[in-house]
């Protein structure tokens, strides 16, 4: 005890005695000898090693200190690039190497209980519990705000986004006069353009008529029925914990559905049989843990809500659910927790939306590079739960390639690996239970992703082929030689013609002339037929040298298949249209037209036959069906193919049911032709009938067993992938036969 | 019924009537009109589509035909490269396109029950049930034998391999006279060389002495105790099924262990407490299914045995196991089932050994490119079960990148996806339950892997750095710029010096002179210190242009870190030593030296500190310990680091227990420094104590739930990853708390 130490030190003229957590370099340097007990040395070493290897340099889960406030955030983690050990404290930074060795020497040599007292200058590391931003220049402050900044999308999303359609309220296709369509707002490259050819295309391809509007008979959000189930215990606990929540109709409605055609129809024509009874907005991992434990105790259902862009019915509340349903909206958990420039990884809260993530990282010179078509609205947690894929996966990878670490909250506990190593063999990879769980096992709270420096150069391109088959063969060769650019997408003739219909009116005779010259070259000089040719759009990223090399190689390979370059502008346009395509469906729905996309992945040798057979199958529908496809991703062993179906339903009863039949027949055809159930959209509810057949019964049994173990009370009762055995609340789980 | 059809056809002058499965093109062409019932058309279409999309063109699981014999194999699947649908039958090949369209027309138009009888020339596809090889040239026959060929390793492996050490019997380090070591046999580049410097190195680095041999007191294989458990029902069923089996001591001993240091010690000094009671050699997926069902019914344990190269104790029989233990040896299931050149995939039986797989594919111009250090002996099934990694993963990927499809037999059923698409989102990926299962959930029978054309060029290289840290920084930059060659491995100074000790005696004064000149340049002109420098070995693969480009870029990046090229020869030597390193341990064990390797994956910024701290930790051992490390793989977010420990145990009691302490302390150090539990070796038994901490308790609970569901009777009772709850036979599974 201290008395003994004082006695022992009696003969020493000058000494300083301090507990282990007071150690600091300045004090050490003011003395001659550092003496520690074995225990003290072990504690200091443990603390150093903890900081060295922790996954969250902000100390969010450091056992030594009190739990930081929920609103704690950290500044930009800029590690010292010398060989010294990384710690936040600048002083330890300079000297830790010598201390580390000295510590180990101390363990062996000195075993006596003598302390040397240091002149106590307790300097705590910078990452303390306080919320104060570190002082500094404006640049510092701007940088810090990148880490914690509200989303572009407001908390009450219906203030900015459509409650009954896709995207922003201020952006939609609209009729200006009888014969021209325009795109409203100012957000997109297409905004403000007039598209004279689009109406003609709609009438020709779909038999629609600009004079025949199909009025929506929607229930206004203000008239939404009140919550059907309120769990009093849960409500009082929520209030006590101070969690932000709402039971207002518009908030509940917005979070009660995704964006399948059926859900859009329901919004326009009626009402969903069941909506969430409450919306809760947690702001940290810890609040989510409390929420999940609470729901488990009270018998309440949680449905995680990220971007709400699901196209599998995943967000629909099961109509037979008798317990209270709570929408767990992650949008207010959207911080960048830290960036690690040495390992090129970063940690993010799961509610961060794609456009916010990329915009904020870009300010710091980085990107994730994950660009799904839903980038503007979908969330990181949703990407993980659905096994998302992005346009530029050739460079950055799909979500399973980007994911380094994830924290996943289940009613049984928090799943997270103990380290962030790049690749491990530690039994079955639990990350792959989390990815694809589609909201049925738990909720993602924090994710560590790879980050990359922004590319130096970005260039678009396009290729024109005589027909779709030549284009497919070219893409297959790009995949074979592993030289595909960041993105390559091949559209068939219908989409090429549709792309033309979206062209703004020529701004002057020069543009019209140039276009005519191009058309002449393509169709007369090269002999491509306008009704058969296919176009691929390309995106290159890298250093200027890399991009030039890639482009030369791709063009030479295209030439092997009779393809010619269509120029950079057509490529750019193709990609700029990516984010407006989703708005087309709302236009169609106003004119008795339904349209939907669905996708698959398929081996290379099945691509062409699959596309042809899909088209044949669609002919079986009594309406003239617009059926078109595009190859959107290339892999070693196959490709991702997207299909678009659209038709005019005027005069037909029950158009949604008819559409369901068409889609199911289409999926049967895909599966019969060797295509998968889904490349990246997932199973949700709409594809459950094929789930067991796709992965085999014992595999379903295994996933069900995981569900029963991690969520025995079926808190996460969205009923995606499969209906839980034994009814919604899992009460008869044990008795039910799997 | 046929009577009605005959009556209906009465007015037709000539007709042929046949059931749907008799349809063939020649007959069709001999008539004018093809009329089918809707049902017939659907059946034919289903059959065509089945062949189009099946994963096994050999028709091994075609529901239309009888199950083929277990010894069925198929010839080289060389699909027609035209746009027509791929079928084996040559006639259908030419005309299917027209038939397909015509079929669809027929469905819509013709709905009457009229058959036209074809002149019956039933031509069955080539892939019939018969075992006859298709006739053809010698080249054809040679090609076909590539698909079905016995392994280089004989069925009774101890006839060729050591029963008490690593590798071939004819290959080992041996003392020629007092001061020189040689490597016997003729299999390796090193074979036959004399290594004068090696003895000196052993004495200096390890304090060993050539005069002090540690004799092995092993139990001769002939004196192995008989089986302890014989299940009579199981034995009679085995005989009835005609499954090859053996209860001979040598066969059982060989399959009762892997290659950890502890297991080698046990072989040399004693005997394992428990061995398999029987060895069974199934020859097909179907026999494995029968075996597993049988074991489940009879209450018998199955331990799958592939190459036997486990280094985690995975193959050790749990000593407390009271049921009969059967070693399921997959080595006789080693066929190449088919190759698909259009999709660049191939299907292989799980018992195929690495060296056989690559040698046979090379004859056809292809490779997998998966080259673990155990390539000569390890099996495809073992790679899948342990999440294996290979030297050239930068080009070909690790096992999770190579795997397209897998068939996995569990007591509950066979797990396999229904299609071989390259990437899917169909819930949690069940392939990742199979990969890493380490023999505890079931057994792999067949695997579809990506194949690649053999590289045009293969070139070795090496780089010399002033110190290990510079080398690590260079490797980090290669990873950052994503330009690492097929393989890059950085060894520290100790391994560089050890590599020198393995040099054969210089063949003449020229070689000695050249070496001296090189040394002079490296140490005097460039100023590298022989006791500090580090060397990286490199392997480039690709077209000559690609290789030249890669090499130029890598050399320029190395120069950024003060590295210079060490020449091609040193690189080649480095890689050639890969397969002989494993023989060193047996040499050491003869002279009181123990050595073991272990590996981890770790983020980039932890690599140097981890290596330094490992070294410090090892100093805590009272013996002088040879501690050395090498970086063997680079990733975006980190690296794989291999450690080698060796020391002289003469005079110490219980060297194995001491070694276990050293290894556990080392692993604690690795984990504290942010390294993973294992990059690719797996958990097995030796790392179970850290398993829960590594993946988190709920994750372990999830995996246990899968185990309970798929293998409720604990047939796969190897007890890897974790001890099953409720005892070995799972009897008290339900009652036991997880």
Overview features:
ribonucleoprotein (chains A, B), peroxisome (chains A, B), 7-stranded antiparallel β-sheet, 5-stranded antiparallel β-sheet, 738 residues, homodimer, Uridine Diphospho-n-acetylenolpyruvylglucosamine Reductase, domain 2, Alpha-Beta Plaits, Uridine Diphospho-n-acetylenolpyruvylglucosamine Reductase, domain 3
Measured as a percent range, the helix fraction of chain A is 25-40%
Q: Give the neighbour order of strands across the main sheet of chain A.
A: 18-15-17-16-20-21-19
Described by strand count, sense and barrel closure, the largest sheet of chain A is: 7 strands, antiparallel
Rounded average pLDDT of chain A: 82
CATH superfamily of the domain at 157-329 in chain A: Uridine Diphospho-n-acetylenolpyruvylglucosamine Reductase, domain 2
Oligomeric state: homodimer
Radius of gyration of chain A: 30 Å
If helices are DSSP runs of H or I spanning 4 or more residues, what is the number of helices of chain A? 25
User: Strand percentage of chain A, roughly?
Assistant: 15-25%
Low-confidence stretches of chain A: 57-140, 732-738
CATH topology tier name of the domain at 157-329 in chain A: Uridine Diphospho-n-acetylenolpyruvylglucosamine Reductase, domain 2
Fold and architecture overview:
The structure is a homodimer of 738-residue chains. Chain A is an alpha+beta fold and 738 residues long. The longest helix of chain A is centred in the N-terminal third of the chain and has 20 residues, at 90-109. Chain A is globular, with a radius of gyration of 30 Å. Residues 57-140 and 732-738 of chain A have low confidence and may be disordered. At the A-B interface, helix 3, helix 4, strand 12, helix 15 and strand 19 of A face helix 3, helix 4, strand 12, helix 15 and strand 19 of B.
């Amino acid at each position: 005890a201290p008395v003994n130490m004082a006695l022992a030190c009696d003969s020493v003229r000058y000494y300083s005695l301090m507990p282990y957590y007071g150690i600091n370099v300045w004090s050490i340097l003011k003395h001659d000898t550092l003496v520690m007990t074995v225990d003290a040395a072990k504690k200091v070493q443990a603390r150093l090693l903890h900081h060295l290897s922790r996954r969250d340099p902000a100390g969010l889960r450091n056992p030594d200190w009190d739990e930081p406030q929920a609103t704690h955030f950290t500044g930009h983690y800029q590690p010292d690039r010398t060989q010294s050990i990384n710690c936040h404290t600048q002083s330890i930074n300079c000297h830790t190497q010598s201390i580390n060795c000295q510590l180990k020497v101390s363990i062996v040599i000195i075993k006596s209980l003598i302390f040397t007292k240091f002149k106590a200058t307790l300097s705590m590391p910078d990452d303390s519990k306080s919320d104060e931003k570190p002082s500094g220049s404006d640049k510092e402050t701007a940088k810090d705000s990148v880490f914690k900044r509200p989303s572009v999308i407001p908390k009450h999303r219906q203030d900015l986004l459509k409650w009954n359609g896709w995207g922003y309220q201020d952006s939609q296709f609209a009729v200006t006069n009888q014969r021209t369509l325009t795109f409203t707002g100012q957000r997109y490259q297409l905004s403000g353009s007039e598209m004279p050819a689009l109406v003609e295309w709609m009438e020709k391809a779909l038999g629609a008529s600009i004079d025949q509007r199909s009025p929506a008979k929607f229930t206004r959000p203000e008239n939404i029925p009140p919550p059907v189930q309120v769990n009093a215990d849960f409500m009082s606990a929520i209030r006590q914990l101070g969690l932000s929540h709402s039971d207002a109709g518009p908030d509940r409605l917005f979070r009660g559905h995704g964006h399948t055609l059926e859900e859009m129809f329901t919004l326009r024509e009626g009402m969903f049989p069941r909506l969430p009874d409450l919306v809760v907005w947690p702001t940290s991992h810890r609040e989510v843990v409390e929420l999940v434990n609470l729901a488990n105790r009270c018998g309440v259902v949680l449905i995680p809500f990220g971007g709400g862009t699901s196209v599998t019915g995943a967000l629909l509340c099961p109509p037979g659910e008798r317990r209270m349903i709570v929408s767990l909206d992650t949008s207010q958990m959207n911080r960048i927790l830290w960036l690690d420039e040495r390992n090129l990884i970063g940690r993010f809260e799961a509610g961060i939306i794609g456009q916010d993530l990329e915009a904020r990282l870009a300010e710091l010179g980085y990107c994730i590079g994950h660009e799904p078509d839903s980038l503007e609205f979908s969330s990181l947690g949703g990407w993980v739960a659905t096994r998302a894929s992005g346009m530029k996966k050739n460079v950055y990878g799909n979500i399973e390639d980007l994911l380094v670490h994830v924290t996943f909250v289940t009613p049984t506990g928090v799943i997270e690996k103990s380290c962030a190593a790049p690749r491990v063999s530690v039994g079955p990879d639990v990350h792959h239970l989390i990815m694809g769980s589609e909201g049925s096992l738990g909720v993602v709270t924090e994710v560590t992703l790879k980050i990359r420096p922004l590319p130096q150069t970005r260039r678009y391109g396009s290729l024109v082929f005589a027909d779709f088959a030549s284009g497919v063969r070219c893409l297959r060769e790009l995949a074979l030689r592993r030289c595909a650019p960041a993105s390559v997408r091949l559209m068939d003739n219908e989409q090429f013609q549709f792309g033309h219909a979206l062209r703004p009116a020529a701004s002057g005779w020069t543009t019209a002339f140039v276009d005519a010259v191009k058309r002449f070259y393509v169709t007369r000089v090269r002999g491509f037929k306008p009704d058969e040719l296919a176009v691929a759009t390309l995106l290159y990223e890298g250093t200027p040298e890399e991009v030039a090399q890639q482009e030369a190689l791709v063009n030479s390979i295209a030439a092997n298949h009779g393809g010619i370059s269509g120029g950079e502008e057509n490529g750019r346009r193709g990609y700029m249209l990516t984010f407006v395509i989703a708005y087309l469906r709302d236009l169609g729905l106003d004119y008795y037209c339904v349209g939907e996309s669905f996708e698959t992945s398929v081996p290379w040798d099945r691509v062409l036959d699959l596309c042809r057979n899909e088209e044949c199958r669609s002919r079986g529908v009594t309406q003239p069906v617009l059926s078109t496809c595009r190859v959107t991703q290339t892999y070693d062993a196959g490709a991702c193919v997207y299909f678009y179906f659209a038709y005019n339903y005027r005069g037909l009863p029950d158009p949604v049911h008819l559409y369901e039949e068409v889609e199911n027949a289409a999926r049967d055809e895909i599966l019969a032709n060797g295509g998968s159930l889904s490349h990246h959209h997932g199973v949700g509810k709409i594809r459950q009938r094929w789930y067991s057949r796709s992965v085999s019964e014992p595999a379903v049994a295994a996933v069900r067993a995981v569900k029963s173990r991690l969520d025995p009370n079926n808190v996460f009762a969205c009923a995606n992938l499969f209906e839980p055995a034994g009814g919604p609340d899992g009460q008869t789980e044990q008795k039910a036969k799997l």
